[in-house]
Amino acid sequence: MPGKRAIADANRPGVWRDGVLLALTFAAGCVDALSYLGLSHVFTANMTGNAVLLGLAIGQTQELQVAHSTAAIVGFVGGVVAAAKLVGPPRDRVVWSSRITFALGWLGGPRTAGHGLLVMIVLSGLAMGIQSAVARRLAVPGISTTYITGTITALVAELTSVSGAVGERRRMTAVIGALVTGAITGGLMLTHARAVAAFVPALVVAVVLVAVVGFPRIASEKAE
What we know:
Blueprint lengths: L1 H37 L8 H13 L3 H25 L10 H8 L11 H22 L10 H11 L6 H27 L6 H15 L11
Helix pairs in contact: 1-5, 1-7, 1-8, 2-3, 3-5, 6-7
C-alpha cells in the first residue's frame, strides 16, 4: 500500500544507521577482546575498563602496564578529538552525513603487526576513539558503540517504563548483544585462528564503509 511504502521509505535511513551502529559495536567488542588478550591486557575501546586497569597497574607499580594503558587512553582521546572536528558537535540528531562517512574512513587506516606494541595500542585506541565520536554525533538515545554501561542503564530504565518505545528497547538490546558477540568472536579467533584474528574487525569496518557509500542522500535529514 502507498501509505505503508511511504512509512518504510521514511524509516529506511534510520534502519541503515542502526545496522551500521550494530556492525561497529560488534567490531568494538572484537577489538577489545583482541587488545585485552593480545595487546598486554589493555582495552582500546572500553575506556572505563581501561581506566580501572590503569589504576590497578599504578597501585601495583607495574610500570610497563601503566605505559600500555596510558597509550590506549592517549590514542582514544586523540581519535575522539580528530573525529569530533570532522563530524561536528552533536547538537542536532542526524541520521547520517558525508562527514561521518569520511571519519569512518579513518578506521580503515593501516594497522600492521610490524609496529611496536605501544604503537599498535595507540593506533587501536585512535580507531576506537573515532568510532565513539561518530556514534555520539548520531545521538541515538542510550547508544554507544564502545561501551554498554549506559546502554544497560537506559534499557533497564525503559523496561520499567510502561510508555517506553519498543523500537528503542530492541535497538539497545541488539547493541548489547552485538558487543558481547564481538567479544566472543575475538576470543575464539585468538584461540583458533590467531594469525588472522585482527582481520575480523577490519573486515567488518570495510563492509560498513562500502555500505555507507551506497547510502541515499540523507546528509541533511534528521532522525525522528
